[in-house]
Amino acid sequence: RVEVGSSVNLTCDFGDFPRAKCFTVIWFKLRSTSIPTLETYQNVRPGGSLVGNEVKKTCSLNLNNAQVNDSGTYYCAFISSSAIYLGNGSTLVIRERSDDRAYIEILTPSESDGEVQSSGAATLVCLVFGVSEPARVYWVIEHGLTDSGSGDSSESTPDFIRNQITIPGEVWSSGSVCTCVVETESGRNMSKSASKTGKRVINRCIQSKKV
């Protein structure tokens, strides 16, 4: 599994077949759709290349800037006399970049403030969807308060990361802006803010972290 835009190298070794050489190799792709289709990569698609000395037995298919439609099972093959010999096949899955589909939802106390009045505190929950890599999630509250909140792997699923924070009721009632910040291992940042004033989405961005 790789992300869109990655470079992929598929290698085929015909060491057990004395008559096989790289110049005789043909690459096939079987795409898993409702109706299976077979594509020939004898002439590699734009952005790809065949690698290997023509008379050697280890040959490669390189796919640069891989796209979702490059997903499928790839086979190398060569024809000798009336027989065709196929490799075992390698399944390639190209997925959209995680940050392209990532987003944040913030759950806030009910508009009636009943949840705040009964406990004297307000709980906000940050749900992060579409991030497939390790990430740090924390809260920034207006007027300088920063809190890591609470959340661990047991509270999250493969589909989302969960983190919550409890703040004094008067801080929430005053309209202070509460921002959930996500920093991924690869250096991507994104955030979303909420306040009692009703401006739920105050900021959201995804960018590379500056070093």
TrEMBL record:
- Classification via SMART domains: IG, IGv
- PROSITE patterns for the chain: IG_LIKE
Q: Domain Ig-like: where? A: 1-76, 109-195
One Pfam family, short name please? V-set
Q: Which Gene3D superfamilies match?
A: Immunoglobulins
Q: Which SUPFAM superfamilies match?
A: Immunoglobulin (SSF48726)
Which protein are we looking at?
Answer: Ig-like domain-containing protein
- Organism per entry: Acipenser oxyrinchus oxyrinchus
